[in-house]
Amino acid sequence: MEENIQNVLVFTTNIKTKRDKRKVSNVLNTNTDIIKWNIDTQDIDCVLRIVTDKLSISQIIETIKQHNFECEVLE
Amino acid sequence: MRLRDNNKEDIVKQKAIEMLVNQGIEGFGMNRLAKESGVSVATLYIYYADKEDLIKKIAIEIGRNFFSAMLKDFSPEMPFVQGLRQQWENRARFMMENMDEVACWEVLQNSSYSDYIVQETFKDFKTIMMDFFQNAVERKEMIHVSKDVFWSIAYGPLYSLLRFHQKGKSMGGAPFSLTAEVQNEAFELVIKALTP
Questions:
Q1: pLDDT, tens digit (0-9, with 9 covering 90-100), for B52-96
Q2: Residues in chain A within 8 Å Cβ distance of B55
Q3: Closest partner residue to A43 among B2, B31, B46, by Cβ?
Q4: Which end of chain B is more exposed for a tag (fewer CB within 10 A), N or C?
Q5: Residue B4: closest CA among chain A residues belongs to which residue?
Q6: Confidence class of residue B137 from pLDDT cuts 50, 70 and 90?
Q7: Shortest Cα distance from B42 to chain A (angstroms)?
Q8: Which residues, at least 6 apart from B54, have a Cβ–Cβ distance to it below 8 Å?
Q9: Quick one: which of A5, A23, A26, A4 has its CA closest to A14?
Q10: Residue A11: which of A42, A49, A37, A44 has the closest Cα?
């Protein structure tokens, strides 16, 4: 059941509210290359966490930015 | 390649337990935990989806350790006195060796996570302890009492003594440490109360 940590990507975003979350939910839910995702909207960095064995960091950043949100790799 | 660092994970878990005990669930946050554990926030989020996920995983781990420790060298088929003695020993040992975990377990038991914890960790243990109780009643090794009264009499004295031990003092502030003699003295009285 344990996730393979090689496949976990984490980003800092400005996806803060429920409404923001709804905007990206659709595209993340329908992307079959994403195994699992969640956003910690309670966190200061609004961390977006994605489990995928196919997508690259830049593909995800691009997808989120297309929806007019900030998205950078969380260091 | 990213390597799973068990050492780091253990530090994170230990710090999380300390923070939950000292600051409660409300004061607990991923950023602060990262800072206190000396790991990056990113590392924390690689291991855990969010605060809730982390708390649940910690709760399950404590619960599993707790219940497997309680079942060590124990079977529900055991004669009543022998079985209860084993329970006392197992519970006392675990609680004395894992004070932080036990304190954290109590914090989580009194939170909105308690239903989840019961569901995920408690079930099998509860069945085994119910079997033990019923076997003792059927074999007439124990007097007939309701479950709740049984629990209070059977374990209440031990937990009171363990609480004194944790604080290092008993009622009135006198120094206290739970020794085998004291534990045995209390156990004998419990047996007196519960056996025909």
A1: 999 999 999 999 999 999 999 999 999 999 999 999 999 999 999
A2: none
A3: B31
A4: N
A5: A5
A6: very high
A7: 6
A8: B16, B30, B33, B44, B47, B48
A9: A23
A10: A49
Q: How far apart are CA A33 and CA A52, in angstroms?
A: 6
- DSSP, res B1: -
> Residue B155, class by beta-carbon neighbours within 10 Å (0-12 exposed, 13-18 middle, 19+ buried)?
middle
- Residue-wise pLDDT for B108-118, tens only, equals 999 999 999 88
Find residues 2-61 of chain B whose CB sits inside 8 Å of chain A: 2, 4, 29-31, 40-42, 45-47, 49-51
Check CB contact under 8 Å for A5 and B30: no
Q: Residue B163: CB partners within 8 Å, gap ≥ 6?
A: none
Per-residue pLDDT of chain A (75 residues; tens, 9 = 90+): 467 888 999 999 999 999 999 999 999 999 999 999 999 988 888 999 999 999 999 999 999 999 999 999 998
* CA neighbours closer than 13 Å in the CB half-sphere of residue B141: 15
Which residues in chain A have Cβ-Cβ distances shorter than 8 Å to B40?
74-75
B144 close contact with A: CB closer than 8 A: no
